[in-house]
Amino acid sequence: MSETKISIATARASSTVVLVREGETGPELLLVLRHAKSAFGASYVFPGGVLEAADAWVGNHGSGLDDAATNSVLNLPAGATAYFSAAVRELFEEAGILLARTAGGDWVDPVPYSSLRDDLNGGRLLWADFIRDKDLRLAYDALHYFSFWVTPREMPKRFSTRFFLAALPGEQEAEHCGGELTDSRWMGAAAAIAANQAGEIDIPHPTVLTLQRLRKFGTVESMLEWATQCSKAGVDCYLPAIVTVSRRSSSGLLATTAV
Fold this sequence. Notes:
It contains 7 helices and 13 strands. By secondary structure, the protein is an alpha+beta fold. It has a single domain (about 10-259), classed as Nucleoside Triphosphate Pyrophosphohydrolase. The strands form 3 sheets. Strands 1, 2, 3, 4, 8, 9, 10 and 11 form an 8-stranded mixed β-sheet that branches.
């Protein structure tokens, strides 16, 4: 009797950024709404996406952390810089926030680059070319690594995602792109959880668990300090599994449910 081989999709390397700012009643997080046909469609999530080849081509255009330091933070033998680059790139492409500094060390004003942001999203401009032409320094030191999720093996589309926490820089204002994203909003972690429970918005499970971890903090500073300690202590990998549970109904029929 031959065994049936189950094909497991490769988990694509990706980065997610939890962007935080001080609100009137405490820290607020940026949530973006993906359109129905995208991954996590019609759900509010944090900005992010898969690594691209150009993320490995940014060379020495980073600030605060060199290649050895990024590898140490993510506990990788090599290539961790690409995750940091992807985090900065996706945040800019999706939300218009640019975690980058000038050669002199000042925060960049992303407004003059709005048309280039459209070119990046449209595939008409390479990220590495943009960074080099504008002589930008990606602010790797502004990204605080705190969580690592891998999509369940049972899913047809899978991601291996590194989560970073970052404070909103300078006077920048978030503005979601009009393509893959259809809405964005700043919300406190507790308020977002409540809205999800009430059915007002839909938030996927990893995002909900992240919000639950962050809702205890009363200031942006304390949240960033916690994320820094997570990174120093070592970040565990979450690999959930989908389990099928069989239940017998009152009519005597068996029903299966994936949980």
